[in-house]
Amino acid sequence: MSATLSNHQAIDLRESTIRELNAVLQSEDVTGSWLVSHPEGRHSIAVGLTAPIDIIIDGQAGYYAGGMNQHANLVIKGNAGPGVAENMMSGSVRIEGNASMAAGATAHGGLLVIEGDAGARCGISMKGVNIVVRGSVGHMSAFMAQSGNLVVCGDAGDALGDSLYEARIFVRGTVKSLGADCEEKDMSAEDLQILRGLLEEAGITEYSAEHFRCYGSARRLYNFHVDNAAAY
Amino acid sequence: MCGIVGLFLKNPALQPQLGALTAQMLKTMTERGPDSAGFAIYGGGAHGRTKMTLRGVTEALRPDFEKSVLSLSDSATFSYRDDHLVVSCPDDAVSAIRELVAGYGSDVRIVSSGDSIELYKGVGLPEDVAARFQLAEMSGTHAIGHTRMATESAVTTAGAHPFSTGPDQCLVHNGSLSNHNTLRRQLVRDGLSFETENDSEVAAGYLSWRLSRGERLDEALTASLSDLDGFYTFVVGTRDGFAVLRDPVACKPAVMAETDDYVAFASEYRAFAGLPGIESATVFEPEPQRVYHWEHAA
């Protein structure tokens, strides 16, 4: 199954099943660098990993690639399907193409970099992850985002940051519309420092942090209103 | 769930492979819709002639049925694939044959009619349905297919997709409509009839109703954004091409791939994995509320 190719251990998904692949990558003694060939849009590639290994997926990934990732560093050479890096805890996932809907959904930590565009609901309910998108994001991105940072170098679709909690959103291009309770904030020195750090970490050098706008929660929804505290 | 696929060929050299490529795409979408499958395939039309796809002409009925059709039009031809029959006849014989079919009662139905459409569907795994109709051997200009996981109506052949409610038109749907009963009643008042309680058939009927009033396909689809309530990714086939529309929320997946040779649609990328030259295709997701439309020059 794992013929060695240069310094990478290789798994060909035309020969191995997803279960076999994930069993190898999830095993307790797994180390090193891995190359997954012929992904061909299959679902659940390299999910539930817990070891600090490096994985290259050489093509298009289907649903939930890199889901629940801890410590591993994943590179997807093509596009990723819905829910890429869903519920990631740590480590990193980099997509060289576009990501479909719900990229980084509910993710608690780590870094998700999308070199192309992300679809609808990017960073939905994010809980601490950092997401950097070189292109644009679709509608309802960062919906109910609780913590973490979403950086969009291109444009954002409708209803950005709807019902936002404490997450920060940085957008360089245009925002089609803001969602309920999302508003533009003054960029503080701390915001700027965070943004610079994220652009650098993501390897994005062509855009300057000064050209982004910062968005956050206006904290006017029911759950922020002190008069409603008596309900608990 | 449900899976939908579509393949529109730009390069005529691929036409003999249309059925085989579509069959492979359908099979890959089995996990999204394992209970029934269907497809519409366009091609082989001859000037002045109409193709009608019928269901329910059983072996026992065939001799009598063929004789009756031939008495109305001696140049009619018959092509059987499992329980489906395609009758090709001169355009001017269509209404007489429709009347004849009506005389057989509700067991025999015309499921599509037009210059080049043929429409097949049935209950079972997509791979088995495709094999039953020898889809892999068919050729044509474009095809649309569907794998069904039923939610809004029973698992029956009639409830499978595509639905054809107008000449050379068909629709496949992934999603569920919430105002289909109201809309069905309105359309019935306007003279349309429906075969099933299925929500997707209403969407097909709605579009046919708009087209019959002289609207273009893109206009009809744009209007559906305000009249249809629910979740949908639609692929609509016409004689010359196909169109794609997603509802504003766009929670039903859709991905497209375009090369110099074809435009392909699928619910998931993996349905494209066997298409020629897919490695270098432009792969993108259709935006919500935007009508995408590809057409062969008439």
TrEMBL record, chain A:
Gene3D superfamilies: Glutamate synthase, alpha subunit, C-terminal domain. InterPro entries: Glu_synth_asu_C_sf, Glu_synth_lsu_3. CDD domains: GXGXG. Transmembrane segments: none annotated. GO terms for molecular function: oxidoreductase activity. It comes from the Bacteria. This is Protein glxC.
Automatic annotation (TrEMBL), chain B:
GO terms for molecular function: transferase activity. It holds the Pfam family GATase_6. InterPro entries: GATase_2_dom, Ntn_hydrolases_N. Keywords: Glutamine amidotransferase, Transferase. Residues 2-297 form the Glutamine amidotransferase type-2 domain. This is Glutamine amidotransferase family protein. It comes from Gluconacetobacter sacchari.
